[in-house]
Write a structure and sequence with these properties.
By secondary structure, the chain is an alpha+beta fold. It is built from 11 helices and 7 strands.
Length: 452
């Protein structure tokens, strides 16, 4: 489950990266639209300003010159910045609305040539800021059209400030501007769409290559993991058979009357053989967990028996060290729960073994209790030690197989990094949770939660 979770998070990050790249392509497309719109608006506003200057129309000249200067500033800023900026696009759309509104009001209203620019506004808004802004723009154009029509009907609309003799020429200019803007907008749309299609196509091909490489790498990793697990299972079986013979003959030698040195050597051989057998059994058990060969057998167990068995497992080891192993489960003495007691004992055994290994002249406290929440019961067990603690940078790897606090060849603590990994995977099989945190003073605490 931990592996699946990490794979899902990796897939999510890849997907987020893909959408981010596609968003960048869309932003570049919008940037091209904005530059085109700003350029056309600058030319149109300057042209109308020149005509207004020639006709002596100060209001129209001021409005269009101001809009042209603002658009020119936005154009320069957007052109110099390779990163897409949104605010120049908003300013461009706002400027289009200002120019069209000014042209409608100062050129006699809806019944005159100033209305020729109205259809261009929603179209430019859609290209630059999308459908939602285009809808608002369409509503605005419709509103000012209705207002202008009403004023025109009742004779309240402002008169056309353009002289009667110049109106045909200005009407021709505005019509040409509308046609040019519409043409450039659609032409820019086609060009930009083709460029975006090429970018998307190139990015898609890149993704296909990356996905093929990723799929091949995952396949190789799975194949290597399967080969590793098969090798571990096979070598564990092959090593355990002769090792059992060594242990058997060692026990026979222990019963023989040998010199003191011979007895000491025999005891050392027996102890080392049993330690090696334990590691091989742990390795074999882990491979069975990996291959889903472990079956959960739930039965009623008494909590006292569970903790007494754990205490008995470590009694000899604690007796020859300067550590203390204490148990606290008075509140649940005599209580029976339905669970796989053998698996829970194995989980706690591995954690206690790890705690004793990293604790020098300290204590290890094992506490147990039953917690009920929303009609469900959980077996909770905390293993608190006074050891060296866990490096915060390695906290995420503590339940990874073949991982230890110190992985160097000259490390001070023995072990192959299987115990905690096995406990974590067994906890997942029991649909539980296993976590760890450093204590405030020293050492760390492992917290086990199993539904019962």
């Amino acid at each position: 489950m931990k592996k699946i979770s990490s794979e899902n998070s990796e897939i999510n990050s890849v997907v987020d990266g893909q959408f981010g790249a596609l968003d960048e392509i869309g932003l570049r497309k919008t940037r091209r639209y904005t530059l085109m719109t700003l350029g056309v608006m600058i030319l149109a506003a300057m042209l109308v300003s020149v005509i207004a200057f020639m006709q002596g129309l100060l209001i129209r000249q001021v409005v269009n010159t101001t809009v042209a200067l603002v658009m020119l500033i936005c154009f320069c800023i957007l052109y110099k910045n390779s990163a897409p900026l949104k605010w120049p696009t908003v300013v461009a759309v706002f400027g289009v609305h200002v120019i069209v509104t000014s042209g409608l009001v100062t050129n006699g209203g809806i019944a005159f040539y100033g209305a020729a620019m109205l259809p261009v506004v929603p179209m430019i808004s859609a290209l630059l800021l999308g459908v939602r802004v285009a809808a608002f723009s369409f509503g605005y154009v419709l509103l000012i059209s209705l207002v202008s029509t009403g004023l025109q009907v009742y004779g309240f609309h402002p008169a056309n400030i353009t002289a009667q003799a110049n109106q045909p020429m200005l009407a021709l200019v505005l019509t040409c501007i509308s046609i040019v803007v519409a043409f450039l907008a659609f032409n820019s749309l086609l060009i930009s769409s083709r460029l975006s299609e090429k970018e998307v196509g190139a990015y898609t091909r890149k993704l296909e290559v990356e996905m093929c490489a990723r799929t091949e790498a995952e396949w190789r990793a799975q194949e290597a993991a399967a080969a590793k697990n098969n090798f571990l299972a096979a070598i564990s079986h092959e090593l355990r058979t002769p090792l059992n013979s060594i242990i058997g003959f060692t026990r026979v030698l222990e019963a023989v009357d040998l010199p003191d040195r011979g007895k000491a050597c025999t005891v050392q051989i027996g102890h080392s053989s049993e330690e090696l057998l334990k590691k091989i059994n742990d390795l074999l058990e882990f491979t069975e967990i990996v291959f889903d060969r472990v079956e959960i057998s739930r039965a009623s167990i008494v909590v006292d028996d569970l903790f007494m068995a754990i205490e008995s497992s470590f009694s000899k080891r604690v007796a020859v060290t300067e550590n203390f192993l204490d148990f606290e489960y008075e509140l649940i003495k005599g209580q029976a729960v339905v669970t796989d007691g053998e698996k829970i004992k194995k989980i706690i055994d591995n954690i206690v073994d790890n705690a004793l290994k990293y604790t020098q002249k300290g204590s290890v406290l094992v506490t147990g209790r039953i917690h009920k929440h929303e009609g469900k019961s959980y077996f909770l067990c905390d293993i608190k030690d006074e050891g060296i603690g866990i490096d915060e940078t390695k906290m995420d790897q503590i339940f990874t197989v073949f991982t230890q606090q110190d992985m160097s060849i000259s490390r001070a603590y023995e072990g192959i990094g299987l115990g905690l990994a096995s406990s974590y995977n067994l906890t997942l099989l029991l649909e539980g949770n296993l976590s760890v945190k450093n204590n405030d003073d020293k050492g760390c605490t492992f917290s086990l939660k199993i539904p019962v």
